[in-house]
Each structure stands twice: as C-alpha cells, then as structure tokens.
Protein 1
Amino acid sequence: MSRHDPQPQPPGPPAPPDPGHLLARTGVRWTIIGVLVSTLLTVVGLVVQARQGHDDTARGGSSTGASGTNGGPGPSEVTQPATAPATSPVVSPPDDGSGLTAAERALRDSLNSDQWRRESCERETAPGATAALKCTVTTSDAGAGTVTTKADIALYPSRSKLQEVYRSYAANLPEGNCDQTMNVRGTWHENGSSAPAGDVACYTADTTRYVIFCTYYDRPALFQVTGADPAALTSWWHTLDPVFTD
C-alpha cells in the first residue's frame, strides 16, 4: 500500500462579523459625535450671550429689563413725576348762624348799621342776583318821627345785568320826577348831590302796593321799598341815609 501526503486545503470563507462588536463600535462613534455637537452648541451659546451683553452695555440698558422686551429704559432710567406742590384748602368764611351765604353776609355787612338792622336781614328772592336781602330799616325825622319798615337790597354780577333788571320794570314808564308824580322813571340824588347817584322808578304795583326802586351807578346794586301810601313812602324814602358804608 502507498502512503499519500495530505494536500493543503483552500482557506474557507471569512467568519461573519460579530454583531455585538459592531453595535458597540457604532455606539461609541455616536457618543463621540454627540459630545462634540453639544460642546459646539455650548460654545456658540456663550459667544452669542457675550455679544448681547456687550451690545446692551453699549446701549446703557438691558433689552429685557423691568420695562419689558421692547428696549425701554430700565428702572434706574425711569423719570419719576415731580411731586405736586401742596395746595392750601379753600377756606370759606365761617357761618355766623344767620343761615346766609358768604355773598349774602358780605352784602349785609356793607349796609349802614345806623338805620339797617343787620341782624334782621334774611334771604330774599331776586332772579339773577348774586345776593339779595330783606331787612328792617328804621329812620327818624323831625316831621314823621321814627318809622320802621322793611326794604330790599340786591347785588347783581354786573352793571349790564342790573340795567336789564331795571328796564324790565321801568321800560314802559314815561320819564318824570317821582317827587312830583307817580308811575314814572328818572334819576335820583343822594345827600343833595348835584350828580345823580342812579336810576329810579316809582309805580303802583296793585291797589295796595306802591313801589320805589333805584339803582346805583357806582355798584351793581338795587334798592326797593313798598308801601300802601305813595306820599308817605316818598317822604320816608328821603329820610334814608346812604345805604352803603363802603
């Protein structure tokens, strides 16, 4: 029998790769890539923040300060409104218990207390007047003796308003002298002065009332008195001292 040497065999196919080994290598690769990307993003973020901080410092304020995100001034830049100066409260004259307004009290206190009993003054109705009073007036005369009656005094906001009121009563009356006749209009004189002190009208209001009223040229005031006897009322009117003391 013959002996043959074994013949060399061709190499076999390569062994298939180990799946576990490939997965491990792939995982390491993605981990490294993730670390690199994260590091890059962090660096980029720091650079952007640094640049924004530099820009805000150059503008003198933060774009996200207390005023919001519109680039408005921060708290240290807000101008506070100036404190309004304290104002003194308006102080009205004290009520003296008369129940009159300040304007009515001022009118009362301007009356001649020698004849006008100021404590008797009460509010009167006079449309358009700033103050109107009805007061007790006492006069003394050698012929008529002491006479006490009621009289009205009113103050208006202007001379034009006073004239409007006067014309509403006297416009239809003819010109004349109230010392000589009734139902006329004219002028009157105070203390025997040659210059007229104002306008006057005298007329019969009804069967029981005769009216004398006069205005003043130096102030928007009107005086009025009524009585049943025209002659007696006219005589009493002439015994009046100046109505106003100022």
Protein 2
Amino acid sequence: MTNNQLSQLMLFSWEIQRSRQVTRSKALANAWAILLNANLTVWYLKKKYSHPSYPNRDNNLQLTLLAD
C-alpha cells in the first residue's frame, strides 16, 4: 500500500470512529473492509439511492469511493 492509500484509510477510519462512536480498532477494521470492497460498496450505494423511475446516467466504471 502506498502512503496515500494508508492516509486515506486512516482518515476514513477516523470519520467512522467519530460518526459511529466505536473503538479505534473496530473503526479501522470497518474502514479496511469498506476500502477492500470499494467496487461493491459503490454499486450498493448507487442502487440504494437511485430513483426507480429513472436510472442514474453515470457509468458504473467511472464511479469511485474515494478520489485519488
């Protein structure tokens, strides 16, 4: 993992820890799982928040969880 990816992981885990009020290790494990399954996470969020009458016009390949 690069330093950029590690810093994103740490920032993401801090965000989870603050918002969910869980322990540091649990927040880090959650962030790690989300980032490892980023493509599934993006697909799930797009499906969850899409309106059934009109599909999102974004290409699935262009969506990312975190911008590099």
Protein 3
Amino acid sequence: MAIALSIPLAEAALFTAGCALIHARRQRPHQTTLVLMGLAALLVAALAITAVPPNYAAMDLDRAAEDLRIGNVTE
C-alpha cells in the first residue's frame, strides 16, 4: 500500500480507537490520556519506519566506503 493511502487510513483508525477508548474509560481520564499518547507515538514510529527507503543502510555504507577511498574522512 502506498504511503499516501496509509496515512489517512492510519489517522482514521487511530481516531476511531481513541473515540472508543474515551467512551469506554470516562471514569479515568488521566490513564486514557496516557494510553492515547502511547498509541500516537506508535503511529508516528510506524509512519517513520515506512518512510525510510528499504536500501537506506546499504546506500549509507556505499557512501562511507567511497569517502574512505577518496580520503574525505573527518574525525
């Protein structure tokens, strides 16, 4: 699924889960807030992971090896 389609889907799912959680846990608002913040953090982490290209680590290693060959190493 493309990232452009997964963002609105994730937003809708998080909103729906949040509404259901708030409705079910009205007596404990502080705990509900912590749970919702945790869910939001997981969503941000998942979106960040999907935004990274799959060959990012290999690209970084190739650049580092090229810098070593050229002599552009800074310490």
Protein 4
Amino acid sequence: MPAYRLRGAVRAADGEIGPPLIDEIITAADRVEAVHLANARETTPADEQVNALWLVDESGTLVWSLRRADREG
C-alpha cells in the first residue's frame, strides 16, 4: 500500500507556514482513503496550535490541504 505523509504547522496571518509540528505516515490504498484517514485523525493537546494540515504522496506531490478554520467554520 502507498504511504502518504500528513504534516501540520502553524500558518501565520501573513500566510507563512512554520516548521511542521505534525509529521505522520498514513498508509492507505489510494488518495481518497488517505484523505479520509487524514480528516478522521484526532487532534491531541500537543497539536492544538496547528492550523494548517497537508498530505503528500510518496513522490512529494500535494494531495490535500486544509486550514483548520475551514474545518471548524
């Protein structure tokens, strides 16, 4: 199964993304399942400050991204 990389960081008001605070491997059958698993991930107190998430495939191509405000809004 392909491995995808879920990363998360703090996105500043000017749009600048800080260093990743979340860096996890998601193994999924395809992109659709990987995005589903990324969306289903529970947040922990340690990553409460993270407000930008993104998922890349094995070649580093962006598959999905989300600002946490979009999820909560």
